[in-house]
Amino acid sequence: MDKQREAESGCSLGGRATATLVISARGEHTFTPMERRMLRSLGLVRFHPQVEEMTADEFVDLAGSYPVVAMTRRPMKYLHRDTLSRLGGLAALVVHTTGTHWIDEQYLHDCGVPLLSLGGYATPTVAEQTLASMLAMSRRFHLSTDRSRHLIDESVSLRGFELRGRTVGLVGFGRLGRAVHELVTAFGMATVVHDPAVPGTASLDDVLTVSDMLVMAASHRYGHPPVIGRAEIAATSARYLINASCDELVDHHAVVDALIAGDLEGYVVDEFDPVLSDPRIEPGRVVQTMHTGWYSDEAMARGRGEWVDQIVRAHRLLASSPDRVASNAA
Fold first, then answer.
1. Which among 44, 63, 86, 133 counts the fewest CB atoms within 10 Å?
2. For position 1, what pLDDT does the model report?
């Protein structure tokens, strides 16, 4: 990056070499021997095991000098500008996630730092978990388990309902939305779709007013407001909301109020948010799956292979464009 562009963007990133830091739960043991050899063939590679979330200071101390940083989302829930700006050597960021809503992409773009993420490695797994989430709400088997363990009172109803004949509103019709559509139609459910990027789909207002269940299968942009807030919850005919994508798509404070008031009967999200643990909510009305939607043997193998490929690609990008690794590292 030339000095003028650096001054205009406020960017302070860029390194000279292409050493790589790989942060994952199990460090080098995340990868197969063949994958480790491939990564080590790129040059200096440090594998760092990290399970718990880090502070910004801890993350910067670890990653600040590496031009190529490859990471899962475990270390940092968000990568804001004030953290990224302290990674003085960063020339490429490779993340083991499909969504990049947790990263200030605009800042990286302004700095000329490529952001590489994964594609549809987990789509089948997440789609199946979405269907399981719908079944959890309709069959209430989580409550049956709690009853068998004497964790809930017998006054809590275990009665469910059938999915067949219901209408699913899909918000988002990319890889995940299409995969969910295929599964729910096999259950005899109708679908109505909203996706501004797909011509011919319905408006969000139309989807809200005809759905029995609303499924969030959309991507989210860093810093954008939720797609589903108080106004949308008030407008929808859906009694159940399944958030299969990311928790930022939905205003959880609005969900809590709607559940307490009886305007929603159930919410499933593949995350954990303490806001949703409000004791005023009837047992079983909220299911939080702790970001396990991608977590299957098959998805892990596909994702690991794709991640390695993207790390290799990052090195090729830097090798073919030396100006990307422009240097302000003193």
1. 44
2. 41
Please give the Cα distance from 24 to 48 (Å, whole number).
7
CA angle 184, 190, 196 (to 5 degrees): 90
The CATH superfamily label for domain 3-121+297-325 reads NAD(P)-binding Rossmann-like Domain (3.40.50.720)
| Residue 162 φ then ψ, to 5° | -90, 145
* Contact indicator for 127, 176 with CB cutoff of 8 Å: yes
The confidence score (pLDDT) of residue 328 equals 29
209, amino acid identity: T
Residue spans of the domains in the chain: they are 3-121+297-325, 123-288
| Helix (H), strand (E) at residue 310 | helix 297-320
**How many other C-beta atoms are found inside a 10 Å radius of the C-beta of residue 69?**
27
Q: Tell me which fold the domain 123-288 belongs to.
A: Rossmann fold (3.40.50)
Whether 3-121+297-325 shares its CATH topology with 123-288 is answered yes
23-48 residue pLDDT tens: 999 999 999 999 999 999 999 999 99
How many C-beta neighbours within 10 Å does residue 140 have? 21
**DSSP assignment string, 101-125:** TTB-HHHHHHHT--EE---STTHHH
Write the pLDDT tens digit of every residue in 172-181.
Answer: 999 999 999 9
Phi-psi region of 156 (alpha: psi -120 to 50; beta: other; left: phi over 0): beta
With 0.85 as the threshold, say if the pTM is over it: yes
